[in-house]
Design goal:
The protein is of the alpha/beta class. It has a single domain, classed as 3-Layer(aba) Sandwich (Rossmann fold), CATH 3.40.50.300. The chain is built from ten helices and five strands, in the order E-H-E-H-H-H-H-H-E-H-E-H-H-E-H. A five-stranded parallel beta sheet has the order 2-3-1-4-5, sandwiched between helices. Helix 2 packs across helix 6. The longest helix has 22 residues.
């Protein structure tokens, strides 16, 4: 097994759980929030700062200016002048590449497919789902989401954040099927069926 699997996902589609199960199937490492802790450790940024910018582009000049006073770790002049959101993105990019160089793994979100686009052993997957399945999943997962409208609002907000982050930092469009090696509707196959499809896809890719 030598494949790096990146998973982009709509909020509520089960992409995170699918990624975990794929990693378990192959006995390889799984990175989601774990990537943020490592990026913080390796870049010198505090973890809270990395989390605040996680898959969220910010265009607030004032916020970037204020937060810049807390940043450290890199010292080239071009880096010093860069907005904090860019610095956090680059720190995550560096960590994603380091992780990929260590061996096969599953990485969820964070433009990992774009960061590793020149890696021949990388497969990019996108998981989406029908709205009613996403609403149901969100309401089951979050205790404070008690109405369908709350679930829809949360879903739209998160997906908008992910989309704007991905489109801002990569040269591709988030969720567009032709930007990925495989695009899956998890509401058709369910979580287990989606895992089965991905593992078969990876095995066929390995044996090509």
């Amino acid at each position: 097994m030598n494949t790096i699997i990146t998973i982009g996902r709509q909020f509520g589609s089960g992409g995170r759980e699918i990624g975990q199960k794929v990693a378990e199937h192959f006995g390889i490492k799984y990175y989601d929030k774990e990537l943020l802790s490592r990026a913080a450790k390796e870049s010198g940024f505090c973890e809270e700062m990395i989390q605040n910018h996680d898959e969220r582009p910010t265009n607030s000049f004032l916020y970037n200016l204020v937060m810049d006073t807390y940043s450290f770790g890199y010292n080239s002049s071009s880096f010093v002048d860069m907005p904090i959101s860019h610095k956090v993105f680059l720190a995550q990019f560096d960590t994603i590449k380091k992780i990929a160089n260590e061996g096969p793994c599953v990485i969820v979100g964070r433009c990992a497919d774009y960061a590793l686009h020149d890696y021949q052993n990388c497969l990019s997957i996108f998981v989406h789902a029908d709205e009613k399945h996403k609403i149901k999943r969100i309401m089951e997962r979050f205790d404070d989401v008690t109405t369908e409208q709350k679930a829809i609002d949360m879903m739209n907000k998160k997906d908008k954040q992910r989309q704007s982050y991905y489109n801002y930092y990569s040269s591709k469009k988030w969720g567009r099927a032709d930007n990925y090696d495989l695009s899956i509707n998890s509401s058709v196959l369910g979580i287990e069926g989606s895992v089965k499809l991905i593992t078969q896809f990876v095995e066929d890719f390995e044996n090509r």
